[in-house]
Amino acid sequence: MTTELTYLSLTLILALVQVFLPAGARTAEFGLRWNAGARDQTRVSTRPLTGRLERAQANLYETLPLFIGAVLIAHSVGADGRLTLWGTALYFWARVAYVPLYAFGVPYVRSLVWVVSLAGLIMVLASLFLLKA
After folding, report:
1. What is the pTM (predicted TM-score) of this model?
2. How does DSSP assign 24-81, residue by residue?
3. Nearest to 92 by CA among 36, 16, 31, 11
4. Which of 30, 67, 87, 104 sits 20 to 30 Å CA-CA off 121?
5. Rg value, the chain, Cα
6. Distance, CA of 7 to CA of 85 (rounded, Å)
7. Which of 103, 102, 96 is nearest to 120 (CA)?
8. Which long-range contacts (CB under 8 A, 24 or more apart) does 28-35 make?
9. What is the pLDDT of residues 45-104, one digit of tens each?
10. CB of 84 within 8 A of CB of 123?
């Protein structure tokens, strides 16, 4: 497996972790009975951490399909190289750093880290157009 596909796999694990973080925060706030119930009524969290974890998860999910597609296309057409290697690494590590920055409410740095992840995604996409004929 290429390094790029390894980073893609790790990003999918991160996405799964980000499913459980807000779910755990909601369970801690509302209790196991609520979690096991039908949840017919949507409860609004009053704890900032729960909302931040939910928004961090939603933020990942905005670019994750693009990242998956870009990595898989680059791999399938043989565009793997320095650009895809650096791009996948930047995207993954920035997304890892983004979670605690968002959870702890760190402004500006969080946004900068998001830009780094976007730059990584753009690098992978750019590799598709820089193929040698």
Report:
1. 0.92
2. HHHHHHH-HHHHHS---SPPPP--HHHHHHHHHHHHHHHHHHHHHHHHHHHHHTT--S
3. 11
4. 104
5. 17
6. 9
7. 96
8. none
9. 889 999 999 999 999 999 999 999 999 999 999 999 999 999 999 999 999 999 999 999
10. yes
Contact 88, 71 (CB under 8 A): yes
One-letter amino acid identity for 122? I
Give me the amino acid identity at 9.
S
Which residue, chain included where needed, has tokens 């750019």?
126
CA distances from 51 to 16, 24, 82, 96 (A): 17, 12, 37, 18
